[in-house]
Give the backbone structure.
Amino acid sequence: VQLVESGGGLVQAGGSLRLSCAASGVVLGINAMGWYRQAPGKERELVAVITSGGRTDYADSVRGRFTISSSDAKTTVYLQMNSLKPEDTAVYYCNADVVVGLAGSSSDYWGQGTQVTVSS
């Protein structure tokens, strides 16, 4: 399974960016996909997650500004980021909880990360 992210970059405060993450090599399905971020000197934190059933959840710090969505095939996930703030600056990682066994067992996969920098 490979996760390929795109869409990061440099933007001014108040601006918008859209991140994409495409999963390939998935055979049995995906339980959920999400976005995490890690700023320098800080731990990686959950930003947003979407389940295969379409349920979403967000970190309090981004709720109302960010929107997570997925493709019809559930193998691509997007993160629309609006009203960006300097504190959103971080490397953003895509994560997928992929079904790997017929009994429903799953494994976590990660993308390589994409840098988002918000200038003040």
Summary: The chain has a mean pLDDT of 96. The two ends are 37 Å apart (CA to CA). The first strand starts at residue 2 and ends at 6. The chain is about 0% helix and 55% strand.
